[in-house]
Amino acid sequence: MRTLVYRFALAIIASLSLLCGGLPPATASAAPTGLAGEQLSPETRQELARLRQATARYHDLSQAVADGYVDIDVFVSGQGFHYLKPSLLDGTFEVEKPELLVYAPNPQGVLRLVAVEYAVPVSLSATAPAGFTGDDDVWHVEPDFGLWVLHAWVWLNNPNGMFADFNPRVP
User: Fold this and answer.
1) Residue 44 gets which letter from DSSP?
2) Is the whole model's pTM more than 0.85, yes or no?
3) Counting beta carbons within 10 angstroms of the beta carbon of residue 25, is it exposed (0 to 12), middle (13 to 18) or buried (19 or more)?
4) How far apart are CA 159 and CA 139, in angstroms?
5) DSSP-derived 3-state class of residue 118
6) How many Å apart are CA 123 and CA 72, to the nearest integer?
7) Which residues touch 33 (CB under 8 Å, ≥6 apart)?
8) Dihedral sign, CA of 169, 98, 149, 28?
9) Model confidence over 20-41: pLDDT tens digits?
């Protein structure tokens, strides 16, 4: 009975959130898709699961700050607010250690973790980093910052694909 009441309460909260506008609730797909709706490989899905496990604690922004992520005063519409961990900014791609966490405001204005972003200085890598298993992730150069970058929308479903730069569900 208690479980039924709990599920009912969650359903009401989720419905109200949708009716009030703002960010829709996070959704997880059983088989996440890459760009152009391609199914991601089992290896990539395992890597994404490891990434989710490694970053779950950062839903609490204060935990991210305590672990060394700093607000770099970068807001991008369709992405969100970017928090960088400077000690991770090197020439290495590590699935479980994204250089940036990306937050977007929920309907109440509270920042919510929606994605991570990997960043590798162009000065340390003339070509795009290897990244996730397979060919679904597409790195690009961010010329203003001199970085190769890659988003992974592990906390908010992105209709444009797991590794797309922009998410239309983020204001």
Assistant:
1) H
2) no
3) middle
4) 18
5) strand
6) 20
7) 39, 40, 161, 162
8) negative
9) 333 444 333 333 444 444 589 9
